[in-house]
Amino acid sequence: MFISKFTAIEEPLLHSLYYFYLSDLDTNQAKLIRTAYDSWGQIQQRLPVPLQWQGTSAAGNWQEHAAEGYVLRDVTGTELPSLYAMDVPLGHLHALKACHGLLADAEKSTYGPLAQALHELADQGWGSVDDFRRCLEVMGLKAPQRLLSVLRRASPAGPVTALTLDESLRADYRDFCNRIVCALSAGDRFSYTSHRALYC
After folding, report:
1. Exposure string (b/e) for 59-91, b if CB count within 10 Å is 16 or more?
2. From 148's CA, which of 18, 19, 56, 142 has a CA 20 to 30 Å away?
């Protein structure tokens, strides 16, 4: 759910702006987009391997990559969608936020090369500045410390390939997943209901 929106920040949104429109923009706009594109790439490289394959052409090898992750269960043995702990350098996050602010302002505008570029991408069904915002909200969420400590033990970052959440941690997990779902799906009743049923 998150990875599909995170991937879309790069392709088609930042990729299209960088390769097809950058020369039309003023120096400051071009610099912000160029820096954000680089920051997105740096964050993508930090993603745990089981998440990296989901947004690439290597998805056909899902069994191989999924085996590099871990299995998460509650005390009843029910398997839960896995969460992965990762640190996002503040500099990269700030670069993406600055770029989103630039794009959000331009999207509201009816003039200028950047506004025109965004309108053209939107007309083609490519790129969503709102999805960009939603991803930033998720990346800014803080997981409960107890849950985070447990997740940091999980493969591939840690040695554990199977984790079981007790009832208290399961409640933390449910609450945190609900916050992710709200950030990614709020305002879209169908998506919110579907995602909440899957993750919460």
Report:
1. eeeeeebeeebbebebeeeeebebbbbeeeeee
2. 56
- 162-165/79-80 β-pairing: unpaired
Q: Over the stretch 30-47, which tens digit does the pLDDT of each residue have?
A: 999 999 999 999 999 998
33 and 25 Cβ atoms separated by less than 8 Å? yes
- Give per-residue pLDDT as tens, 163-175: 999 999 999 999 9
> What is residue 53's predicted lDDT score, i.e. its pLDDT?
53
Structural domains counted in the chain: 1
Q: How far is CA 161 from CA 75, 80, 147, in A?
A: 16, 14, 16
Q: What's the N-to-C CA distance of the chain in angstroms?
A: 13
β-strands 71-74, 79-80: how paired? Answer: antiparallel
Which helix (H) or strand (E) segment holds residue 73: the answer is strand 71-74
Write down the residue that tokens 């987009």 correspond to: 33
